[in-house]
Amino acid sequence: MLSAEKSQTLHDICDIFNLSQLVKGITCFKKGCNPSLVDVIITNKKNLCFKTINSPNGVSDCHNIISTVVKGNLPAQKRRDVTYRSYKTFDIDEFTNDLQKIKISENCNEKDLNRIYDDYEEDFKNILNKHAPTLTCTSRRFQTLTCTSRRLFSSDTNVYKYLGRKIIKSEDERPVNDSYYLVWPNYSYWTVAYAITNKGVKKLLHQKPLTKMITLDEFLPTMFDKNPEGDQSWNKHFFPRNLISLSTNPLLVEPAWYGGQPGHYTDTGDAYIVQEDEQDGHPGQYTDTDDAYVVQQDEQDGDDQQIIKDEL
């Protein structure tokens, strides 16, 4: 759209159908090419659009994000009845004890099986209703989602919320209540972007992680007790592991570069594990292929371990 020659066809279409192009300025900064305006918003109702944005966003390495706001009315959402069980006062021991009191007749014939089963089912439902009664509320989905987010992410809760991450097993993650946009995350890699409450920060700092040498993307799943290797390694060093973790779905932030792409850099992906020398109890010497890191121990004068970093 910046070049009259290249955009003539689009200009002609707009003139013929009385359309307006809302985006102004450069939107694409592809390396090796002249800046261009290739992302457009075309409408025949220009008076209904306002606050058109053309801005860099950090997600794409060459494209700006463009958006506009359209004036309009949303249809009222229908109210619906939601039935659920309340486990607010549920006690598993009391529930189990009441179940054990159900009497089942042992002397019966085939004709009595259906009756005995029906009687047991009725007794079980009565006990379940006693300990976890069914309640009904009327709500709208939008209100439900809003209330859920506000309640879970209030300042008095220890909540960590992923905005960007690498999902390992999405099939193991379930939605928060009936939310379309929040899930309970499982073990995840990366810490691309996140939000955390003040109480959540205090809970993490209380563990004194800087004294225990653990990477952030291992530390966080450990703190919400989803690290698959936790029982063998991390769990014994961190307690209590009751951080409440949520994740947006879909994710709101993604890396600008992935592994193998030009410009991608990782300081952990190819790192070596420094282990203790089993013979003399001192750290040994480890050098990677680029001689980037050398860990040495001066055994003659007993100097402390030195870490020499030649290059990043």
TrEMBL record:
Q: Which UniProt keywords apply?
A: Glycosyltransferase, Transferase
Q: What is its EC number?
A: 2.4.1.50
Query: According to the UniProt record, what class of enzyme is this?
Result: transferase
The family annotation for this protein states: Belongs to the glycosyltransferase 25 family.
- The protein's name is GLT25D
Taxonomic superkingdom: Eukaryota
A single MF term (Gene Ontology): procollagen galactosyltransferase activity
Question: What lineage does the source organism belong to?
Answer: Eukaryota, Metazoa, Spiralia, Lophotrochozoa, Mollusca
